[in-house]
């Protein structure tokens, strides 16, 4: 069949689309920014089609649904203000487009929720979207899941970090509510199987794994599977869901905007009332995945660096870093309009461009940013406190980056390896042959737009490293912000430039720091300290360059 997948850059959609293609379906992925899919191998192969579209745009959704058989609706607006109205409007537009195009089946992934109680705003919104599709006139299957466990899922990350980082935890009352988690592999099995549901099926289906546990038991079970010492839990009856979300925001990579709906879904018991889906879609071969097995699989994927998608892969529709139509891009000439502040640094390197690129593409996450760690940490903490994403989102993969990846508080906007004019996009008009480029767009809370651009050009006997920080201020606050932080640029960007080059040279065994210095004077001592620091950075890059 021809399947339309919305939310293909998200956690679920990014795994479902290639599975549908592997099963022989034609897949049309509807994304707001098609460029985010250019580095994904499966998205470049038949029978996958990438089209630009937005669930809030009637024309684009009509075009996306034309000639299709099945529509998978996998988007929601949890982190946006007024999200319930946004989701309602988007669902109405999409349902109308599906009906007009003659779509034969809609599949929507919602959340399990109890009946007869007042739901949180987030759960109520998810239920409302399901009802809109069920009443649309297009046969709809609403699959309702509770906690989804898989490498990179927000629910799993919250469970993992709370358990790993807190040997003693203050536990609110909601951790004693029963939950029926389900492994991501089983969610994908039922979503893909819903393609073949009979045309007269128009209803909700609860989907859940074989275990019903309290969240407390889930944390204890995770600790056991992960080989952690037993965790101690101290009950605190006054820790409300809203207070809990602040705690999760501080302790885990999951920001408060995402933690709120996750915790709201645990305020009530979320256990499947039925499992009628098995009457239409046969259970997975070998049966449903147990909680402990799901945790083992997720931890193995993380340990082996095989995380396909991550909760941070889909950015909010109105992210703080989204440019306005009138805003210049980093590639625009100075006369494009508006004030643009830059911090530009260059440094020749004795290392080859390939080795230097391996260091550059491995920045962030556990390896850090090669300069002034306290400064980066402090800015990340401030961002988290004001509701931003902070530094703890980390990386999807320790060794590779692709366009659209979240990288701490940045988003990968361009990632070109040894390219030329044939690889250049409109936002990189001046790409030289053999040049490497990594451009990151900041998603932190700031009064303006910010980019960090790292370029490497091959040169005889080595390479040239060029680093450019760009800031487009908005209003007086934006100008003041730049000048307040400008004095720290020497520490942050200057140190970053020096240490990235030094790490590459040491990893390759080239450059002045690669040779030991046996002197005892102050200059020699300074050189050894600098070399030791660079050695530590080179160690971080060792696995990437084979040194």
From TrEMBL:
Residue ranges constituting the NAD(P)-binding domain according to the UniProt record: 7-113
One Pfam family recorded for the sequence: DUF2867
Full protein name: SDR family oxidoreductase
